[in-house]
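Title: Comparing notes on inverse folding

I've been comparing how different people in this forum approach sequence design from structure. To keep things fair, I'm posting one structure and asking everyone to reply with a full sequence. Here's the target:
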């Protein structure tokens, strides 16, 4: 069974041969651990993906990750990165005054990247998806952010204050504009190729609660998600959402909107909260605990965390994927423990020799 076939069987609850697992490192993580992290990655290519054995310049942060450099994205949002290797924050919001929507022109999704720079959609994104399909690899695509784009355009506090009003025509125009950009982008992709997965990334939660109430979510955000997820589902795609923070009170509405794969954090939601609200209802691409256990735990605690995740959320039918992000605060020995635990437990439901 190929990785693509196994992934799709997992997210569709059709009995995968193994739990799909992956590890990614932020530029800050590479800068901190450098060649030592590369050695671990080369030992576990199935988890980290392909790597250059000779390494690279770990101090070169690249675009959007270099500290102290302002840049303006295609939406007119000005960003500042404060910490090397960790993406920055918006410093200027072009629609902080909602009345400026009358004179605002959004980027063109067919010729401009959702973030910065030009993009030839056919030569880049569509060609990549076709190549992945031809090579038997997972073809995953996305349309940019929605809730986060609104924050960037309007400003976080300003957005939430305006969302408190059920009737707010200027804000509705901004919401419709962002949804339209994403819909046009997704439609252009689907007119040429059908990805296996289409999705987005929006951090919807704080540490203790969703950033908007379920009522506000249903008024301002759910219709947009339903339109986008519905488009992808009608084309035969699975739909995915990466979202940090506490999400449990929004899960029912996300599923109702057409979401099939959710990437939630363990820390704010807990394994048992995730089990109660999500298990068996949609695929859980679990973001292992990068707030506490990965940076602060012992290697054994990291291993125990992976084992418990499989115990609580795993099933022979599938529905569980394990993902982990390495930041500058994660010790190398914990990365090694994480990788080995993923390898040991990912075949638990197909093995009679892997003890939990």
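Reply #1:
Here's my take.
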């Amino acid at each position: 069974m190929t990785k693509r076939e196994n992934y799709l069987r997992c997210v569709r609850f059709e009995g995968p041969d193994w739990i799909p697992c992956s590890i990614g490192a932020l530029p800050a993580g590479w800068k901190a651990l450098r060649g030592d992290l590369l050695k671990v990655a080369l030992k576990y290519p199935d988890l980290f993906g392909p790597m250059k054995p000779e390494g690279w310049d770990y101090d070169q942060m690249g675009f959007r990750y270099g500290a102290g450099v302002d840049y303006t994205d295609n939406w007119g949002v000005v960003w500042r990165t404060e910490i090397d290797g960790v993406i920055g924050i918006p410093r200027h919001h072009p629609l902080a005054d909602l009345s400026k929507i009358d004179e605002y022109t959004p980027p063109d999704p067919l010729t401009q990247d959702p973030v910065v720079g030009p993009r030839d959609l056919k030569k880049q994104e569509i060609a990549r998806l076709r190549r992945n399909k031809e090579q038997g690899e997972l073809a995953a695509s996305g349309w940019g952010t929605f809730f986060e784009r609104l924050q960037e355009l309007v400003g976080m506090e300003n957005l939430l204050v305006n969302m408190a009003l059920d009737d707010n025509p200027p804000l509705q125009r901004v919401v419709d504009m962002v949804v339209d950009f994403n819909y046009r982008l997704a439609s252009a992709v689907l007119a040429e190729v059908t990805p296996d997965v289409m999705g987005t990334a929006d951090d919807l939660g704080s540490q203790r609660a969703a950033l908007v109430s379920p009522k506000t979510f249903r008024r301002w955000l759910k219709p947009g998600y339903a339109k986008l997820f519905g488009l992808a589902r009608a084309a035969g795609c699975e739909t995915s959402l990466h979202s940090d923070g506490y999400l449990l009170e929004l899960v029912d509405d996300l599923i109702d909107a057409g979401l099939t794969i959710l990437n939630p954090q363990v820390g704010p939601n807990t394994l048992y909260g995730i089990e109660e609200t999500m298990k068996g209802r949609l695929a859980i691409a679990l973001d292992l605990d990068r707030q506490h256990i990965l940076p602060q735990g012992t290697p054994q605690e990291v291993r125990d965390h992976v084992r418990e995740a499989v115990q609580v959320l795993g099933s022979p039918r599938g529905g569980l994927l394990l993902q982990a992000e390495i930041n500058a605060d994660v010790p190398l020995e914990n990365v090694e423990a994480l990788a080995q635990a993923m390898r040991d437990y990912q075949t638990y439901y197909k093995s009679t020799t892997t003890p939990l």
